[in-house]
Here is the input.
Amino acid sequence: MSDRTANLLGAVGLAVADRMAAAARDILNRAGETPAALVVIGHGTGPSNDQLRGVLGLSHPGAVRLVDRLVADGLVERRKGHDKRAVALHLSARGHAVREKLLEERIAAIGPLLAPLTETEQQQLGNLLGKVLSAPKPGDGERRRLCRLCDKRACTDCPIPADCSKSG
Here is the structure.
C-alpha cells in the first residue's frame, strides 16, 4: 500500500464528508446522523428504532432522541410494525421531499470534486472505488453503514449491496 495514496484518499474522504455535511445543514439545519436517518427510513422498509440504530451506529437512547426530533419536525411518522410491540418508521410527505433534496444536494456537493476528471477518468475512478468498497464482508454491519446516505437509484450495480432493514 502506498502511504501517499492512503493519505490522498483520506483527504478526499474528508472533502466529501465536509461537503455533504454542509449541504445537509443547509437543508435541515441539523447535522450528525439526521440526514442518514431520513435516507435510510426513506428506503421504505419501515425500519424499527433498533434497525435504524444498527445502521447508523447509534446507542438506543441516541436513536430514540433522533427519531423523536424527526417526528417533532414532521419528517417521520411512527406506524404499527410487523408485531404488536414493534414500531415502524416511515417518512411523511414532507420527509420524502426533504430526503429527495438531500440526495440531490449530496450529488451536487460532490460533483465539483470530480470536475477535473474526464468522463473516462470518472468511469475508471468509479470502477476503482467499487473495488475498494466491495472489501467489507457480506452481512457485515459496516456495509449498511457505508450505504446510509446513498441514492440507490444512482448506484444500480452497488458493489456493497446491503439490506438496511436488518440491524447490525
In short: The chain is about 60% helix and 5% strand. The radius of gyration is 17 Å. The chain has one domain: 3-146.
